[in-house]
Every structure is written in C-alpha cells, then in structure tokens.
What we know:
Strand content: over 45%
Low-confidence stretches: 85-93
Largest sheet: 4 strands, antiparallel
Order of helices and strands: EEEEEEEEEEE
Radius of gyration: 17 Å
Structural class: mainly beta
Number of helices: 0
Strand order of the largest sheet: 1-11-4-8
Number of strands: 11
Shape: elongated
Helix content: under 10%
Amino acid sequence: LPAGVGGKVLQVVQASKNDTFSTSSATYVDVTGVTADITPSSTSNKILVQCFVGKFTNNASSGSLLQLDRGGTSIYDSNTGGNADDAFATEGGGGMTNNDRKNGVGFLNFLDSPSSTSSLTYKLRLRQGAASSDVAYVNRWGLNNDQSGVTTLTLIEIAG
C-alpha cells in the first residue's frame, strides 16, 4: 500500500438480531442471526470485530459464556480463564427476582489478522455456565420471557 494508507476503513458489514435466543447447552452453539461474511481485499488487512449483545442473561446462578468464531475456529472465548461459573455471573439469577432484574449487556471487541483474501464467516456463539438446568439468553431477561435489546455483529476491514 502507498504510504499513509494503513488504517483506512475499507468496508463495513453488519448483522443484527432483533429476536431472542436461548440455550441450555454446556458447549457453544451458534446464536442464530448473528453471523456475518466479509472478504478482505489484501492478506495484510485486519478485521475489527465488534459485537454488542443488547441483553445477556442466565436463569440461574451459573454464568453464561460468549465466543467469537471465524470459520470454525474460536478467536475469542470469555471462558479463557477456565471458570465457567464466574463468567458474566452477575447477569445470572443468584437470588434475583423479577422485581430485581439485572440489566446485562455484553460487548466484544477483537482485532483479527486472518491473512486471507477468501470469504470469512464470523459468528457469535453462546453457552450456559455449568449446571445442567441453567439456560443462557440473548436479547431476553433471564427470569421471564420479556424481550429486551438488540444484538449486532459488525466487521470492519482495515487496511494493513
């Protein structure tokens, strides 16, 4: 690239989820509708991945976990520390009632260096913490079925 071109935004792609999603899985599952594709124009370019989770809750005291995936490979995992019960635990039940609901959002920001000019697929994935009866939610309160929030996945190609 010519001098002074690095850092320029080349393209922006966004996926938006307006409905709710839930899982009782203790392994990661794709959050439907939070998938976006981008094709970098150069192998030296970076992809800034920004994911805003408008509501991120759990129906019990176990934590909920988020993962960013690119083409079947985890590029960010909120369980990196290894303690699933502590991950985003404040968004869980923990003695909450419907009159004392916690307002939880998630924001993931990751600068990826895919070294590719092929089409890349990025996904948000979700799992509940550890207890078999727990349920993790996106765009929904944890203790009732009130929908709340919008989740977005934004991919920004930046010149290398």
